[in-house]
Structures are given as C-alpha cells and as structure tokens.
Specification:
alpha+beta; four-stranded antiparallel sheet; 8 helices; disordered N terminus
C-alpha cells in the first residue's frame, strides 16, 4: 500500500504513528466484529496491520459494503471527532488485525496537539475524499461492467501497490483479498453477474486473480473505462 504523504513532506508509516498513540494495542482474528451500527463506542481504532470492512445490512440481511480501512487508518473518525454520537456502520476485521484503541480524550490530548498527527489525518481525509468520489461514481453507473470498473479503480487507488512486470506493463496488486461476493456486495450486483463481468475483464487483460489476489493492469483499466482523468491522481 502506498505510504501516506503528510502536508509537511514527512513520510509517516503506521508503525511510527503507533509509537505516538497512547492506547492499548491488541490483535484480533479475522471476522471479529469491532463495532455495531448504532453502538456508542468506548473507543475508536487505529489500524497498524490488517484490513477492516465497514458495511450496513439490507432488509434481506445481506451485507452492503461501504468501504475498507487498512494500515494507517483511524476509524470511525466522525465519532472520534464528536461529529456523531454512535457508529454509523458495522465494522469487522477481514483478516488478522493489529489495532490500537483511540478514545475521544486521546484525540483532544494527543492528536490535536501534535502537528505531525494533525497533518497526517488531514492528508488521509483528502485521500479518502478522492476515493469516496470514485465510490460514488461507481454506484451511479447504470451498467454492471461500469460499476465494477470504477470500483476496481477505487480499490487500486486505496489499496494498490505497483509490482514488477517483465514486459513493462503497469501492474498493480490489490492488498485486500477479494471474492466475487465481496465485490458484488460493494456494487449491489449478484455474485453471478459480478463473476461474469470479471471474467470478461480478465479475458481483455484488464485483470488477473488467483487465490483471491487481484492484479490490475492500470493502463488497460483506464482504456476500458474510457476515463483518463483519474490517471493524474497521486497514489
């Protein structure tokens, strides 16, 4: 995953942030619920390692994934900064996660008084806003393939890292392990439709996947999307 750049030009890693935070560090197993929708949390979390998903439940009981949080992310920021009184979503660990508990008093006593942390959070918010616009764009699309294309671009931007290619292709691997059902839940499609569209994109060379690990050809993805404006985003 790309390292976050702060506005003062310092490259901060999650491990460095973890050293500053006063909360208790703990490890949770995959599929551990961290927070329930409507719950008033005792603390939020800083993710040192692992991936957490945020989701809501439809009336049918099916999950609708809102987004993912990875190393370096604080959650839920709206509650931590007193913008909401309760959690807006369900949060669940997708894999083994190392977390640090962060309370509202920690925000007041440490985050707001540390310039490096303030700049770090501001930079993350700007990055998250760009990612959120991609998510909104994906959900606005009328065709299934376009919903998936823009969602893949969101995942590339938030969780992709460039990998070596023998033939010079612009390849990026997604750090989150994804199933067809996970992607379907993100875009509001059936698993069958999602699998069909992903196989078509695989045939076109836009992506490859094995053991839930997705690799995207960024240039081909942009070409199929017919959208080159996102290519200027800094990863």
């Amino acid at each position: 995953m790309p390292l976050t750049r702060t506005l003062i030009g310092i490259m901060l890693k999650p491990a460095q942030i973890a050293e500053i935070l006063p909360g208790i560090r703990r490890t949770v197993k995959a599929r551990t619920p961290l927070m329930y929708q409507g719950e008033v949390p005792r603390s939020g979390f800083f993710i040192v390692k692992g991936v957490v998903k945020a989701y809501t439940l439809q009336k049918s009981g099916e999950e609708q994934i809102v987004g993912f949080y990875g190393p370096g992310d604080f959650l839920p920021l709206p509650w931590m900064f007193s913008k909401t009184s309760a959690s807006l979503y369900y949060y669940e660990a997708m894999e083994v996660c190392d977390l640090i508990g962060v309370t509202r008093s920690d925000v007041d006593e440490h985050l707001l008084k540390n310039d490096a942390l303030k700049n770090y959070i501001l930079d993350k918010l700007v990055q998250d806003q760009a990612a959120l616009l991609m998510r909104v764009t994906s959900l606005e699309q009328s065709r299934a393939v376009e919903k998936i294309l823009f969602t893949l671009y969101y995942l590339l931007y938030q969780f992709g890292h460039k990998i070596p290619s023998k033939d010079g292709q612009d390849l990026h691997q997604i750090s989150i392990r994804l199933t067809h059902s996970t992607i379907a839940s993100m875009v509001g499609l059936t698993r069958e439709t999602t699998a069909t569209e992903l196989n078509k994109l695989k045939t076109k060379g836009v992506l490859t996947y094995k053991s839930k690990q997705y690799t995207l050809n960024k240039a081909k993805l942009e070409r199929v999307m017919g959208e080159d404006s996102f290519s200027e985003l800094v990863e």
